[in-house]
Amino acid sequence: MGFWSRLVRTRLVGLEEVNRFPNLAAAHWHGDELALVSHFGRAGLTLLVSHSRDGEMMARGASALGYRITRGSSTRGAVGGLLALIKAIRGGHSVVLAVDGPQGPRGVCKMGIVQLAQKTGVPLFPVGVATSRKYIFKKTWNQVYLPLPLARQVILVDEPLFFSRTSDPKEMEQYRLSVETALHRARDKAERILRDGE
């Protein structure tokens, strides 16, 4: 993956804002993993990976690229995975999480990322990806894709979200929807930059 990513012309947008914070949480959609994984391992991000067979392969590859790995999902090991990410943030690390998994539906944010940001107080950065040419693994539930050599790609880190540490269930649902909206907006921005060549 490290070699493959060097064959893709990737532009990173929005990292200046990220550098203002000692640690943070980043959110992205499932399916973008292979586009993202080669670019942020050196930052030592903690990555939550499912207990599935595919997750085991992802964990080994991401670890080799420099990520810290914790295992869990929104089904098996959900509480343990969330607690491990909270512990990582409180230990001074940043974390990244695909928020619509591990079994979908695609593009629907789960509540875990909101609970994580709320309990720790860190900013939540939505990440959007746009790729000009890619191979889509159509038999996967998340339609994961691999950017093709010589493709152009934009990875955009959008403005951070912050959540109150005390919220009622209605507010929590509003927060969840705000993450969903922000992720769709980040992808749209990335696609516009890719299209317009800004």
Account of the protein in words:
The chain is α/β, with parallel strands linked by helices and 198 residues long. It has one domain (2-196): 3-Layer(aba) Sandwich (Glycerol-3-phosphate (1)-acyltransferase), CATH 3.40.1130.10. Helices cover 37% and strands 21% of the residues. The chain has helices spanning 2-5, 15-18, 33-36, 53-64, 78-90, 112-120, 169-196, and strands at 9-13, 25-28, 46-49, 68-71, 95-98, 124-131, 134-136, 145-147, 152-157. The longest helix has 28 residues, at 169-196. The chain is globular. It starts with a helix and ends with a helix.
Structural class call reads alpha/beta
**Which spans of ≥5 residues are poorly predicted at pLDDT below 50?**
none
Q: Quaternary state, please?
A: single chain
**How many helix segments?**
7
Count of β-strands: 9
CATH class: Alpha Beta
Measured as a percent range, the helix fraction is 25-40%
Radius of gyration: 16 Å
Strand content: 15-25%
Distance between the termini: 27 Å
In the CATH hierarchy, the third-tier topology is known as Glycerol-3-phosphate (1)-acyltransferase
- Side by side, the strands of the main sheet go 1-9-6-2-5-3-4
Mean pLDDT, rounded to whole units?
89
So what's the overall shape?
globular
Major sheet size, sense and barrel closure: 7 strands, mixed
